[in-house]
Amino acid sequence: MPPSGHLRFGDQLLDLTRPRVMGILNVTPDSFSDGGRFVDREKALEHARRMNADGADIIDIGGESTRPGAAPVNVDVELERVVPLVEALAREGMRICVDTAKPAVMREALRAGAGMINDVRALREPDALNVVAAGKAAVCLMHMQGEPRTMQAEPHYDDVVAEVRDFLVERARCCEAAGIARDRIVIDPGFGFGKTVAHNLALLRSLRIFEATGYPVLAGLSRKSMLGGFAGRDVNERAAASVAAALAAVARGAAIVRVHDVRDTVDALKVWHAIGTE
Ligand code: 9MG
User: Does any ligand 1 atom lie closer than 6 A to the CB of residue 118?
Assistant: First the structure.
C-alpha cells in the first residue's frame, strides 16, 4: 500500500507528496550549553529560527543525546531543556517535533504545542503509547538494536532489512491498536542505532521496502559516522556528504529527511525537484 501522501501533524495536514526537511535542534551539553545543566536558550532559539528561515518544515528538539555511548538524562533536566523552547517556537508558528523516549516529556511537550514525537525507542516505554494516543500528534517510530551506551559494540542481524521492517510494522500496528491513526505514523530504520556500516547501507539501498509498508519513511543520516568514514571528514565538515545521503534516501522513497544542514539540503532538494524523476 503506498503512503497516504500526508501526515496528520497536530491539527495540520502536512503534504508529503514532496520530500520534507526536519531540522535538528539538539539542546544537550555538547550543543548550546555551558557544559552543565544550563542550556543557552537564546542561542537555541536563534538556531531554530535560522533553520525555519532556511526552509525547514519541522524543527526536531532533543534534550537527551542518543549518540553511541551517551549516558541517560534525568527527566527534570530534559523537561527544563525542552519545554520552554517548544512553547516559544510553537507560538512563533513553527512545526515542532520533540525527540524523546520519556512519556513525561512527551506529555509536557504536547501540552506546550509540539505536533510530533520522535521516539528512538518506538513508544516502548510504559505509558508512551497512551500519552501519544491521547493527543493529536504525529509520531516517528525508530528502530534501535540495544541501548545508546552499548549499541555499536556488536550489532547482529540475520536479515537486517526484514528484521527492521518487521519490528517497525509491529510497532505501527501497536500504535494503531492503541488509537493512533495510521496517517499520524512515520517509520524510521534508525541508521547508526545498533548497525554496522554494512547494515546501514543495506537499509538505505532497500528503503523502498520500508515505503511499501504504507507508512511514510523518515531517514536520519546527517553527519553520521558512516558518512565521515566515506568522505574522510570530521563531524562538522560533513555537510556535502550529508546532502548526498539525504538525496540518496529521497531517491529511494524517504518522505522526510532529518538534517543539521537545512539550507544546503533544501537547495539540493529544489534542484532535485526541478530536474524531476523519469
Ligand atoms: C534522535 N535521532 C538521532 N538520529 C536519528 C535518526 O536517524 N532518526 C530519528 N528519528 N531520530 C534520530
Answer: yes
Distance 249 CA to ligand 1 centre (A): 14
Question: Residue written as cell 543539521?
Answer: 260
Which amino acid residue places its CA nearest to atom 7 of ligand 1?
220
Cell numbers given for 107: 506529555
pTM, two decimal places: 0.96
What are the cell numbers at 234? 570530521
Rounded to whole angstroms, the Cα distance separating 278 from 273 reads 12
Which tens digit of pLDDT belongs to each residue from 145-185?
A: 988 777 778 889 999 999 999 999 999 999 999 999 999 99
Q: Which of 28, 65, 66 to mutate to test the pocket of ligand 1 (most atoms within 8 A of CB)?
A: 66
Distance (angstroms) between ligand 1 centre and the Cα of 278 equals 30
* Contact between 54 and 262 (Cβ < 8 Å): yes
With residue 97 as reference, give the H or E element that holds it.
strand 96-99
- 214-234, pLDDT tens digit by residue? 999 999 999 999 999 999 999
Of the candidates 100, 45, 110, 111, the one whose C-alpha atom is nearest the C-alpha of residue 78 is: 100
What residues contact residue 150 under an 8 Å CB cut-off, 6+ apart? none
DSSP annotation of 72: P
Cα(25) to centroid(ligand 1), Å: 12
Rounded CA-CA distance 214/183 in Å is 10
Which pLDDT belongs to residue 37?
45
Spatial neighbors of 45 by CB under 8 A, at least 6 apart, are: 85, 88, 89
- Which of the residues are catalytic? 224, 258
CA distance 6 to 16: 5
